[in-house]
Amino acid sequence: MKTALITGVTGQDGSHLADFLLAKGYRVAGMVRRASVDHHERISHLLDRITLVQGDLLDPSSLVRVLEEVRPDEVYNLAAMSFVPTSWAQPVLTGEFTALGATRMLEAVRQVCPTARFYQASSSEMFGKVREIPQTERTPFHPRSPYGVAKAYAHWITVNYRESYGMHASSGILFNHEGPRRGHEFVTRKISDAVAKIRLGLARQLALGNLDARRDWGYAGDYVEAMWLMLQQSVPGDYVIATGQAHTVRDFCRIAFSHVGLAYEDYVVTDPKMLRPAEVDSLLGDASLAREKLGWSPRVSFEGLVRMMVDSDLAILSSRLPRSPERA
Ligand code: G4F
Predict the structure, then answer these.
(1) What CA–CA distance (Å, rounded) separates 328 from 322?
(2) Which CATH superfamily is domain 3-178+217-241 in?
(3) Using one digit for the tens of pLDDT, what is the confidence trace for 245-277?
């Protein structure tokens, strides 16, 4: 039985990856930070099947202790400050978690379990002001946010530890990936939640920022399989993980509203406060390398993803509504 350590296990990707690895027969440990509020809602269904260990990417000695305790065969470094707008408000803390945090974890792995295989969650945000369309593993980076800059650092330090110490360290350059477990601050979940609320008469309007931003959106459940596949290769490497199709925020709105029989134009307004100091206008990934070397391809379509998220939010909100006499 193999053992995996996941940092960021309470997040969208961490919870999907834990589900995936448990189904593969892994022993799964998740690193969590001590917090006064419980953030375990995404992993509540598997708390009796995984081990939670306390550690913090800001504290190198805690990482050494976690690795000594867990003795993992595979380490998935998914923890980061992952919401792009917050990275302008907290640029230094973003660098500490997202950039130096990866170095601290790599260094701890090198000291405690250098033969463990390491996965770094790189991001299409690194491409930023894109130099070519579509983006591949060879496209130069031009990040447009403190978050993107921090992810570029983490990406290159992973490459560097691979080249300096021969570690089995790989990076997945994941394009946007979503699903019902997505945080409400990200645009896709903000839309699906608002559509469900409007459909149920709980809200009347949805305020968004840039409706013309284009993203290559896939389903998070598909993308965690690619992380695992990277660590099963005899040779480590870096892979773009994407669908190869881009849509605008407006397209997402159109499909989400029409799924419940509404027209987005009647409900969506734009709010300049939600525009970013520097925007990533358009991202489109070419995952040919992952398809050829890993045998990976996405299963859920864009339309299927939008419908899945709206249906999920409708179910969540409906279950919280007071039961009317005729429904009782
Ligand atoms: O959903 P978003 O906040 O995701 P963003 O910034 O693309 O970042 C996500 O994907 C990255 C991979 O490329 C990850 F690394 C990162 O951690 C995160 O998962 O915004 C998507 C687009 C942006 O262009 C934004 O300007 O939607 C636009 N947008 C328009 N109105 C909005 C809104 N974004 C948010 N969050 N909220 C809005 O009201």
Answers:
(1) 9
(2) NAD(P)-binding Rossmann-like Domain (3.40.50.720)
(3) 999 999 999 999 999 999 999 999 999 999 999
Q: Would you list the DSSP string of 245-271?
A: --EEHHHHHHHHHHHTT--GGGTEEE-
Task: Kindly report the CATH class assigned to 187-215+245-283+300-320.
Answer: alpha beta
Would you say 154 and 99 are in contact if contact means Cβ atoms under 8 Å apart? yes
Domain ranges of the chain: 3-178+217-241, 187-215+245-283+300-320
Q: Give the mean model confidence (pLDDT) for residues 231-258.
A: 98
- The residue with tokens 């003795």 is 71
- In 3D space, the residue among 305, 306, 307, 287 whose CA is nearest the CA of residue 297 turns out to be 287
d(C-alpha 266, C-alpha 232), whole Å: 49
Catalytic residue chosen out of the listed positions 119, 124, 125, 153: 125
Q: Residue with the nearest Cα to atom 22 of ligand 1?
A: 213
Q: Answer yes or no: are the C-beta atoms of 63 and 79 closer than 8 Å.
A: no
123 assigned to active site: yes
What is the mean pLDDT of the segment spanning 293-311? 98
In terms of DSSP bridges, do strands 247-248 and 214-215 run parallel, antiparallel, or are they unpaired?
Answer: antiparallel
* Active-site position among 119, 147, 153, 219: 147
pTM for this predicted structure: 0.97
Which residues lie with the beta carbon below 6 Å from any ligand 1 atom? 82, 84, 123-125, 175-176, 185-188, 190, 208-210, 213, 215, 249, 274, 276, 279-280, 283
The helix (H) or strand (E) run that includes residue 4 is strand 3-7
